[in-house]
Each structure stands twice: as C-alpha cells, then as structure tokens.
Amino acid sequence: MSRDFGHGPLNFGMMSPTIKGLILVNVIVFGLSMVVGGQFITLFGLIPAKVIHERLIWQPITYMFLHANLFHILFNLFALWMFGMPVESQWGPRQFLKYYMICGVGAGIVNVFLTPDSLSPIIGASGAIYGLLVAFAMLYPDAVVYLYFFFPIKAKHMAILFGLVEFFAGTSSSSPTVARFAHLAGMVIGYVYIKWWWTIKLKTVGFIKSMVSRPSDNDDSSFPRVAEPVPAAKKVSDEAVEVDRILDKILEKGEESLTDKERDVLRRQAKRPPEGHA
To answer: Is 80 exposed, middle or buried (0-12, 13-18, 19+ CB in 10 A)?
Structure first.
C-alpha cells in the first residue's frame, strides 16, 4: 500500500519498518566488525577468489552490510534514507526490499566475474544504494536534489552524472576499477529491472488476471451469481481497459512517463481484491 512521505528532519521513529530494519542491520554488523577485526571482513566481505575457489557463496550477500569506517556507513545510510523512503512509499516494503537486494547482490556477482582471482575485499552497500538512486530518478525525474548539500540538480541528471563518473573513474588506471564498476553495475541492474523485467512482469500478470476474470461467452454455469449494478460494472471494465493502456505505455516509454492520474489508477488496481476474495 502506498503512503505519503516527507523529508523533514531525521526522525528514526518516522522511518518505515523496512528502512529502519536495514539501518539497524548495517549498524549492528558494523559494530561487530569493529570488535572482531580483520577476520570478520575476510569471512563476510566480498573476496572474488574465495567465492570462486573456496565456495564462500554467502559473500555476495553479506558484503553489503559491511563498511570500512564511520564516514562510509553514515554516507550509505543517509543515502538509504534519502532515496529509499520515497521509493519504498511507492512500491511497498516487499518490492522495495526485493529490488534493494537484487541491486546489491547483482553488483557483488559482477565483482566476482570481473576479477575472479582477486584477493582484495569489497565491502559496502554502494551497489544497492546506486540502484536506489536510479529508482528514485525514474520515479521522480524532475525532483531537485542538492548535490553535496549545495548544488541543486534534477534527479534524472544526477543519476546520469553519477553513472558517467563511475564509468570514467572505473576505466582510469588510478582508480579502484572493480569497486567503481560494482557501483555502475548496481545502477545498470536497477535500470534493467525497472525498465524491462518489472514492466514485462506487470503486463504478464495483468494479462493473466484479465483472462482469468473474463467470463466466457459460452458459460452456462448454473451456479448463482451476484449481480452488480451496471454503472459499477462499466466502471470496472473501463478501468481495466485503462490499466492495459497504461501498461502498454510503460513498456513503450518507461515508468517515468506516467502521470499522477495514471499512477493512481495502478494503485487502485493493485488494491483491488482478486476474484472470489473479499
């Protein structure tokens, strides 16, 4: 269910349970890494050679919750709050968490395939955070963000700028290429997921639901039916046609092309109970 959000002063109590849970996990894991020391990062950070040769297959997941220092974790958690709250308010906690993990784990897997013999540990949630930046830019392309707290820039332009910075920094011999391309991988994975996979899935689900709920012309079932008022039936039918049109628009132009009215139609459709359920 969608909810309103506002970026007022930082208030932990007003954060959604999903954002709050991710922040708590990151803080707890950061504290453990400070107590245990280097062995903790060796075991749970992302070391491609160990994933490949020693089968430490949990590392592409656990590396997301480790951070090098206080500034590193504060920056990532601030970005999680800043971009995560509006995205989660639109998608809901389940879809948001799924997307966050796909971007973060996907970026880790890209790390492994880029340098399978590397022994340098990679840590941090930046792959997932950069994926959230893309999602925010696609949902709110014209939202103004103050880059480094001083420079106003539209979200869509900021996403493009960050992508270019990560690409050129990654190809520079003086930059840590693998980490840079992990950030870029999080952005690319997020974009592909939103632009194609998610919209195709929505279209498929919508088509299946329309086929299942559509009465057959030859249906002579003797089961009693509850008649609906004609105006309500017509309204539902018209909205189903409108949903199909909106999904076609998403596939053709992307989710960011939707108007507020079209988003409201999709939200109402998502809240509608399946056939046969109260």
So the answer is: buried
Q: Which residues contact 88 (CB under 8 A, 6 or more apart)?
A: 16, 18, 19, 96
d(CA 216, CA 231): 21
Contact 96, 149 (CB under 8 A): no
Choice among 8-12, 49-53, 95-99 with the minimum mean pLDDT? 8-12
CA 107/CA 99 separation, integer angstroms: 12
Contact 144, 87 (CB under 8 A): no
Specify the 3-state DSSP secondary structure of 157.
helix
**Which of 58-62, 164-168, 257-261 has maximum average pLDDT?**
58-62
Which amino acid makes up residue 183? H
The pairing of beta strand 144-147 with beta strand 151-154: antiparallel
Quote the pLDDT of residue 275. Answer: 40
Q: What is the C-alpha to C-alpha distance for residues 15 and 175, in angstroms, rounded to an integer?
A: 35
Nearest of 34, 49, 36 to residue 121 by alpha carbon: 49
Q: How far apart are CA 137 and CA 133, in angstroms?
A: 6
Say if pTM beats, i.e. exceeds, 0.85.
no
Answer yes or no: are the C-beta atoms of 99 and 91 closer than 8 Å.
yes
- Residue intervals of the chain classified under CATH 1.20.1540.10 are 16-193
- Rounded to 5 degrees, what are φ and ψ at 147? -65, 125
Residue pair 192/103 in contact by the 8 Å Cβ criterion: no
CATH number of 16-193: 1.20.1540.10
DSSP-assigned beta bridge partners for residue 153: 145
Residue with tokens 């400070």: 34
What's the DSSP call for residue 139? H
